[in-house]
Design the sequence.
């Protein structure tokens, strides 16, 4: 850690030294010349990455923040700065509030659903002996597949009259629903699809986590009397999976906040605002209604949520789930 | 407290037979060590005793009660693992309390939050707390109760693992190489502590190790295992001085015992590497034998020929009070090692020719198949093995 920091520092001082002229540098001590060479090398090596980071991340983010302060509309030749007006509008807008609440609800269904089902499937696969690779593959497939294409398959399954789900329910004498057009079911159905898509990813991470638990701990738990499955789960498996679980929660939460494909393909945020999620609101405001300034403000709010989540992961949670 | 009886245990993992018909009786309160090189099946036997593995055949009883098919927690045994297997997310206190909580509290009483509201849980928890604290203090880890295993040194973790085993007063302690993750100095110290613990508790200990020094210093009896077979069960001094099998003689002792091929010439004389030793073997003239001579049973003499071995010094290792002298003997393709007292052998140099006298009564005779051939004047093992009656 200290070495790169020192190098950056020396690069900084050397940049100032550079202003004072090359003649001074030539007369500088060997130690200083060496430090300059090191700094130059460091910048050369890191340069491309720094440039890409600036060009592809920081400058666009800055651009979005600036656009959020204007009333610019996509394609229009002129704009004026409006200060925080867009943000005020964002927070008073019923549509945005509904979208934010929907997103939070969606995340609150998808994250626990994915973690629990991913863990359960990982435990089942790990406890069995046969066809492990097959089970792993079929559960991981949804994560690999293009969600837009899969969403169309879901649409067919969920079709109110000819869809397999309603036909099955009807055959068993259970009530059916127009899943994607009913404001009570649209969001939960999207969440279920979200779980279906992510659980393979969670499962793979949990499988890796399970493999790294020493057999000795299970043996010790057995001898100590924690030999029923729930006791084993509580004494060994879950605590030892702590770091993996935390990682899964954060990653799945981020992915859930970013849910877009299913909304766009299946419900377009409807009925009403019932299944509108943040990213879809952002898209619609920016590219359908062409209210680019307002869309940028939504993007900034979205970015803040995502960054906060990431910070929570690195700062607080890391300390609580590692036992060293 | 209980005796342990193991009879006819067999175990295979796939096509590989790990244990072949192992039978062993362990007396109540005895410290028995299973000694053998890695892969000899000793840990598997211990795991079968604990109930962590199931035997393919044979039966085990602990304290007159058959435990075949019983789950580990019903066997009244505690185990200390090589890795200690402490729960890293629990404090030392919680680690040690777990075996008691699992036994004394019901599943509902152990539920987080809800459990605490149930009647008598507070009292039981307080009792467990008291016992954990008392055990921890007796092991000198009372001040560590609030720490987590990650914050402890190797020796402290080892004590916690022992404490977790001790806290519920099991009939039998099973220890699977508990000292092998410690550095050499700490290992010697913990060895003493385990010995003292055994004397203090008086429980039955079954201890697995590949370290002969641990086996020799700790045990009442040592059970030597090789390739899934129990070769000999005897007190440490007998294992060393009176082994039943060539493989035991070669496994125990450092430096390794010297093995020389010889042939019986006549009653009271065996020809070996260009010399004749006056040893009375119970075998016909012409019988090929292997002579095992421990390095310390050799001494310098001033004449070669009859009754002595002659060789040239290849290398000398100074060990303080002793010298390990490596010699080349004519007709022997591996070095021959003598352990001589430094003060009696002051002027030895490489290249020098030495004559070594052998005490015939200390020579171990083996048939070419490796079975021990006792001399006629030797005591039978049963008269020197106090636990032999138990073992058979």
Sequence:
């Amino acid at each position: 850690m200290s070495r790169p920091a020192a190098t950056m520092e020396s690069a900084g001082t050397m940049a100032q030294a550079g202003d004072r002229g090359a003649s001074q540098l030539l007369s500088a001590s060997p130690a200083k010349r060496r430090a300059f060479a090191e700094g130059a090398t460091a910048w050369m090596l890191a340069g491309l990455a720094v440039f890409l980071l600036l060009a592809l991340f920081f400058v666009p983010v800055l651009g979005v923040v600036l656009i959020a302060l204007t009333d610019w509309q996509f394609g229009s030749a002129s704009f004026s700065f409006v200060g925080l007006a867009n943000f005020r509008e964002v927070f008073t807008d019923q549509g945005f509030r509904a979208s934010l609440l929907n997103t939070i609800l969606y995340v609150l269904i998808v994250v626990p659903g994915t973690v629990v089902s991913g863990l359960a499937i990982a435990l089942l696969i790990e406890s069995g002996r046969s066809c492990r690779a097959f089970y792993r593959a079929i559960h991981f497939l949804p994560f690999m597949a293009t969600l837009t294409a899969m969403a169309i398959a879901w649409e067919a399954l969920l079709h109110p009259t000819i869809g397999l789900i309603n036909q099955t329910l009807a055959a068993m004498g259970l009530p059916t629903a127009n899943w994607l057009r009913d404001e009570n079911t649209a969001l939960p159905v999207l969440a279920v699809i979200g779980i279906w898509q992510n659980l393979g990813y969670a499962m793979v991470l949990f499988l890796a986590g399970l493999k790294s638990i020493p057999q000795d701990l299970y043996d010790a738990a057995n001898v100590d009397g924690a030999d029923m499955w729930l006791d084993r789960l509580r004494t060994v498996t879950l605590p030892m999976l702590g770091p993996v679980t935390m990682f899964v929660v954060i990653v799945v939460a981020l992915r859930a906040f970013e849910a877009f494909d299913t909304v766009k393909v299946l419900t377009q945020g409807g009925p009403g605002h019932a299944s509108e999620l943040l990213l879809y609101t952002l898209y619609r405001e920016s590219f359908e209604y062409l209210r680019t300034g307002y869309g940028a403000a939504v993007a900034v709010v979205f970015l803040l949520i995502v960054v906060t989540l990431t910070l929570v992961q690195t700062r607080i949670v890391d300390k609580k789930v590692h036992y060293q | 407290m209980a005796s342990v009886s193991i009879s006819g245990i067999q175990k295979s993992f796939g096509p590989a037979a790990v244990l072949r018909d192992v039978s062993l009786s362990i007396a109540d309160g005895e410290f028995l060590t299973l000694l053998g090189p890695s892969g000899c099946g000793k840990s598997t036997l211990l795991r079968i005793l604990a109930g962590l593995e199931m035997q393919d055949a044979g039966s085990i009883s602990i304290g007159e009660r058959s435990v075949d098919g019983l789950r580990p927690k019903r066997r009244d045994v505690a185990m200390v693992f090589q890795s200690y297997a402490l729960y890293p997310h629990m404090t030392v206190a919680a680690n040690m309390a777990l075996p008691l909580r699992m036994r004394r509290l019901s599943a509902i009483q152990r539920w987080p939050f809800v459990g605490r509201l149930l009647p008598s849980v507070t009292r039981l928890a307080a009792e467990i707390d008291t016992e954990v604290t008392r055990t921890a203090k007796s092991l000198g880890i009372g001040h560590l109760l609030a720490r987590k295993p990650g914050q402890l040194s190797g020796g402290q973790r080892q004590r916690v693992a022992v404490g977790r085993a001790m806290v519920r007063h099991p009939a039998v302690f099973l220890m699977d190489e508990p000292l092998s993750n410690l550095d050499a100095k700490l290992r010697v110290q913990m060895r003493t502590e385990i010995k003292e613990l055994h004397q203090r508790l008086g429980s039955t200990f079954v201890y697995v190790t590949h370290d002969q020094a641990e086996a020799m210093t700790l045990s009442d009896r040592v059970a030597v295992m090789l390739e899934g077979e129990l070769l000999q069960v005897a007190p440490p001094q007998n294992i060393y001085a009176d082994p039943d099998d060539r493989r035991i003689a070669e496994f125990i002792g450092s430096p390794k015992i010297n093995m020389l091929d010889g042939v019986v010439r006549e009653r009271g004389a065996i020809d070996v590497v260009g010399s004749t030793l006056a040893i009375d073997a119970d075998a016909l003239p012409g019988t090929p034998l292997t002579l095992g001579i421990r390095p310390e049973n050799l001494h310098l003499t001033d004449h070669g020929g009859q009754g002595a071995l002659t060789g040239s010094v290849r290398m000398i290792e100074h060990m303080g009070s002793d010298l390990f002298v490596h010699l080349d003997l004519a007709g022997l393709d591996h070095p021959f090692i003598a352990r001589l007292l430094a003060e009696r052998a002051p002027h030895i140099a490489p290249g020098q020719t030495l004559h070594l006298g052998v005490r015939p009564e200390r020579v171990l005779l083996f048939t070419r198949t490796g079975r021990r051939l006792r001399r006629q004047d030797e005591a039978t093992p049963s008269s020197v093995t106090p636990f032999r009656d138990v073992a058979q």
